[in-house]
Amino acid sequence: MNLHNSISRWLVLASDGDESAAEAIWNRYFARLMALARKKLPEAMRREADEEDVVVNVFDSFFRGTRDGRFSQLNDRDDLWQILAMLTVRKAARQIERHRRLKRGGGTVRGESALLAPDAGLQHGIEEVVSSGPTPDAAASMVEEMRLRFEQLGDDSLRNVAQWRMKGHTNREIAEKLGCQERTVERKLRLIRRLWNEGEPEHE
Amino acid sequence: MNEPRAHVVPLEVDRAIDQLCDEFEASWRAEHIPDIRSFLNRIDARYAGPLLRALLPLELAYRASRGEPLSLPHYAERWPEHGADVRRAFAEWEASRKPDAENATAPQHRSAGGDSGRVVRNGTPGDGTRDDDACESMPESIGRYRVIGKLGSGGQADVYRAVHPALEREVVIKLARRPLPDAPSRNENLVAEGKLLAGLKHPNVASVFDLDLYDGRPFLVMDYIRGCNLRQYVERQSIEPVEAALLVARLARAVAAAHARGVVHQDIKPENVIIDSEGKPRLIDFGFAAVRHAWQEDKAAPGSVVGTVAFMPPEQARGETSRIGPRTDVFALGAVLYDLLVGKAPFAANEFDEAWRRARQCEFDTAPLDRPGIPRSLRAICVKAMSAEPQARYTSAGELAADLQAVVDFPKRQRKRMAMAAVGIGSLLAVVLAGVLVWGPRDRDAGANGDMLKRAPDTVAGLSIADMDGHDDVGDGPPAQDAGPAIPDPLPATIPSEAAEDRSQRKPTTETPLAARIENSLGMEVVLIHPGTFTMGSEVDRPEGQSLEDDRYEPPTIEFAHANPDAIVPRNAHLLHRRGGRSWPAHRVQLTKPYYIGKQEVTQREWKAVMRDNPSQFQGRVDLPVHGVDRWEAIRFCYRLSVREQRIYRLPTEAEWEYACRGGVNTCFVTGDRITPEDARFSTDGPKPVGSFPPNAFGLHDMHGNVEEWVADFYMDYRAEAQIDPRGLFVDRELFDGMMGQFVRKVVFNISRGGNWASPPSEVTCHFRRPITPATMPRLSGNGFRVVLDPNLPFNSTIEDYDRLHPADDWEQTEIMK
Questions:
Q1: Inter-chain contact B739–A182, Cβ cutoff 8 Å?
Q2: Rounded CA gap, B449 and B11, in Å?
Q3: Complex ipTM, two decimals?
Q4: List of chain B residues whose C-beta atoms are within 8 Å of the C-beta of residue A171
Q5: What's the pLDDT band for B574 if we cut at 50, 70, 90?
Q6: ω before B492 within 30° of 0 (cis)?
Q7: Less crowded by CB within 10 Å, the N or C end of chain A?
Q8: What would the 3-class secondary structure string for B404-469 be?
Q9: Cα separation of A58 and B47, whole Å?
Q10: How far is A81 from chain B (nearest CA, A)?
């Protein structure tokens, strides 16, 4: 299944069809999902012992950021948080679909409908996920997803850029941190987006 | 989605492009001007266009920041086939520099440009001035020096890169922006200053060798040093507190040498320290003293605020010039140490005024110095050096250096261990003596410390009893104050000329000559190898057509990326499917410390005596070399042997191995360019007893063939530059344990040397290197090793010191060892 297509199609639906729908998703679903996920993070992980833990770190700045109103609007589809939100939602949707297939019997044989419209099931799942609101399970998988995505970046410089970007630093600031040209940061962000949008982490 | 063109390129290629760009940029920052063409050659021709599009903007930005002229036709001519890409890159670059041209391309990497500290990291203010005419034309020549580029500029001076016309020597010229005020004595002053600076020769100082006037403005001519500044250096790799101490100690000694000549630096900061290609810190940008009024910013508020406020002592920040002296530099050294330990300058602030205010009031946060990992003594040194009152600081940079060195030489944890051992001496000693070696950390400590306690305490590496009586971690001052007698530099320590039984007499005195040979209780003989210089590697195996241009790296191939979709294309990925590592370029290596190396490969008898088992495939005679051991097992053997013999045994570094193997020859084999079955064991079907073949000039047997020998370091491509005591690739634990781990493991290779009994002649040469991925084939049936006895490291060194001798790729293994 071409994941890239399915995501973009969904994005198109969400944003072209109804801007406010997308924003609602962001506000009602993702923000709540994040809050849930944060609760999911064991207490111990948030203490200084895991200072370096990228995920914990990034989560914390997200919350500090939302408090300051920094992450509140959905105006940039290339924002790494947005991408992550989409990935999480999609993952949850896939789980729903898998579950449904199993119920239908087997899961090894794909239904005819799936052959006709490969993304139909997923599309359906996404709607379902969003409308029913975040569950604790989704929150856990959100954390897991982030971990995998950071891991997937592999390269240290990519990970740093992603982390700083998600913590709300500007490209200029990141360039200064790295002692490189701003353009380099932009290039790395493009690559990160591609990796997250197109590449699947190894576990799946 | 937003970048349709990017999707033409496969994801793996995109990643490769990103890495090439990083390399390209790193090269610029390290002042190795990269050649775009050589980068383009490293990618599939289909993707040269996208790569060029990514590289060109960087090239333009860096060239512009050096004040070099840029011309579209020039680039368009070079790549006619990518004309559109070149034009686009130019257009984008032009557009991007308009809004904030000055900052976007500012050379924050400027090495020699001391004043370019105005470009700042993390809000650390520079000297707070901005030059409005950064783009002014640069002079063609300054005095007799031909200018080739502008490196940077600040409020007080412009910095140029230039060439001495006759000597073709590259230099850095710092040219004041204003003429010296007309004063009758100015020329004498200038000459005096020039003499002073030119006389300042120190290995950690970039030499100044000329000072003159150009257009009425004074200029300084300095060594051009390749490397990166300390700021960039620490951004690329983390630095341990003890390393920071060592680095600042070196700088402090350099500063002390300058003070001895009456020169005060007044602007010591990470940007003014260049880590040169040998990893040596070099202080740059001396030269404010006599001509200070010429450099100084006249609009700068009261007095003479010269230098960078983020590292500035209060008396300097307040412009109290009469109080500026050697202790001003002591403070700045402390501030640099603070920066290295904490990760930011003491007076860092977002606004210059705020930083300046904090500097004037000496307001910095000591809390970050309390983080675990920073020895208390080091914290105390830092705080003392940074006292607000000059009188409260160290009286001299030399004194500061001595205290820092003491921290380096005797980390606190070592004393802690001694104290622990003192408590449990009886039982622990019994464990050691009975030879019951259990490899838990506690027992491992006990082994080391039990040893020390068996000896008279006053012989323990110069430590007094006071150091061992258990006061170790309780907020004490710098070690020099509480450690009683002055602590001698433990290097070079020596081995007594007698054999091992006389260890109680061992003292780290430098007079005792090292014994030529030492035999241990197992009858293993090691031979002394003196320090020396040799040519490491060889050009013999260099593939045809590979130019010197390619020496710095091996391109990751796109084909490889496709074949291994999960590979992150490690720099040395080609090794995975090649037989040997790169034994070229041949380069000079200096080994500065003496060492002993095994005369023979470790035999099965010796192995069994220490390890009990025998993994060897070919057995039958006890003097056959042990084989079929992996690197970790070899290290474990060395460790156990160390405890047993109470000396430091370890694996040789690759350089030590090759130096010992060559025994002074520069050919493929010690026998010349050919080797015969009478000279060594190779191209055959099993090992021979050790010593069956004639020794080399150092008296060592079987360096060629028989079993292939493990060395301590990890594989790294050679560099063409001369090296001192090279140690191979270093990967820190954090990287391994982190998410990066799985990728890092793919680029780490162990190395074995000298080939084995089955190897063809081409693999038993002095230079052949076999990289081995620990993950996939840790154990090779033909691999054995020989040991090194290290006389430079006292046996009572910490376990961390021992670990440092053998970089780890698997920390679980080190845990097992302990």
A1: no
A2: 55
A3: 0.72
A4: none
A5: very low
A6: yes
A7: C
A8: HHHHHHCCHHHHHHHHHHHHCHHHHHHHHHHCCCCCCHHHHHHHHHHHHHHCCHHHCCCCCHHHHC
A9: 35
A10: 16
Distance CA B25, CA B413 (A): 40
State the nearest Cα–Cα gap between B459 and chain A, in angstroms.
40
Extract the tokens encoding B812: 């679980």
Q: What percent of chain B has pLDDT over 90?
A: 17
Token code pair at residue A51: 């200072």
For B175-206, b/e burial (b = at least 16 CB within 10 A) is bbbbebeeeeebeebbeebbebbeebebebbb
Give the rounded percent of residues in chain B with a pLDDT score beyond 70.
66
Per-position b or e across B290-310, b if 16+ CB within 10 A of its CB: bbbbbbbbeebeebbbbbbbb
Residue type, B717: D
Q: Where are the alpha helices (DSSP H) in B114-266?
A: 186-198, 230-236, 241-260
Q: Rounded to whole angstroms, how far apart are CA atoms B339 and B352?
A: 18
Instruction: Classify strands B723-724 and B649-650 as parallel, antiparallel or unpaired.
Output: unpaired
**Angstroms from A64 CA to nearest CA on chain B:** 20
Residue labelled with tokens 């506690």: B442
pLDDT band at B720 (very low <50, low <70, confident <90, very high): confident
Alpha carbon dihedral B585, B590, B595, B601, in 10-degree steps, equals 10
Which two three-digit tokens encode residue B693?
Answer: 């073949």
pLDDT tens, residue by residue, B127-173: 333 333 333 467 788 888 888 777 776 556 778 888 877 776 788 88
Rounded to an integer, the average pLDDT of A151-157 is: 81
Instruction: Using the Cα atoms of residue B249, residue B251, residue B254 and residue B256 in order, give the sign of their dihedral.
Output: negative
Nearest chain A residue to B106 by CA: give it: A181
Question: A67 forms bridges with which residues in the sheet?
Answer: none
Whether the CB-CB separation of B268 and B251 falls below 8 Å is answered with yes
Whether pLDDT at B304 is above 50: no
Which one-letter amino acid corresponds to residue B8?
Answer: V
Give the Cα separation of B61 and A175 in Å (integer): 13
Q: In chain B, what is the greatest distance between 2 CA atoms, to the nearest angstrom? A: 91
Helix, strand, coil shares, percent, chain A, to 5: 75, 0, 25
Is pLDDT larger for residue B233 or for residue A124? B233
φ/ψ of B584, rounded to 5, equals -120, 165
pLDDT given for residue B632 in this prediction: 83
The count of C-alpha atoms lying within 13 angstroms of the C-alpha of B764, restricted to the half-sphere facing its C-beta, is 28
Report yes or no: B467 and B449 within 8 Å, Cβ to Cβ: no
DSSP B792: T
Paired residues of B205 in beta bridges? B283
CA neighbours closer than 13 Å in the CB half-sphere of residue B699:
11
Chain B, 54 to 113: residues with Cβ < 8 Å from chain A are: 54, 57-58, 61-62, 96, 104-105, 108-109
Closest of B158, B17, B333 to residue A190, by C-alpha:
B17
B79 Cβ neighbours under 8 A, 6+ residues apart: B52, B85, B86
CB contact under 8 A, A184 and B22: yes
Helices (H) and strands (E) in chain B, counts: 27, 21
Residues 6+ apart with CB under 8 A from B510: B492, B494
Sort B207 into a burial class: Cβ within 10 Å, 0-12 / 13-18 / 19+: middle
For chains A and B, what is the number of CB pairs under 8 angstroms?
Answer: 78
Taken as a whole, chain A contains a residue count of 204
- Pairwise CA distance, residues B407 & B476, whole Å: 13
Total Cβ atoms within 10 A of residue A2: 11
- Region B738-765: mean pLDDT is 75
Q: By C-alpha distance, which of B341, B334, B331 is closest to B388?
A: B331
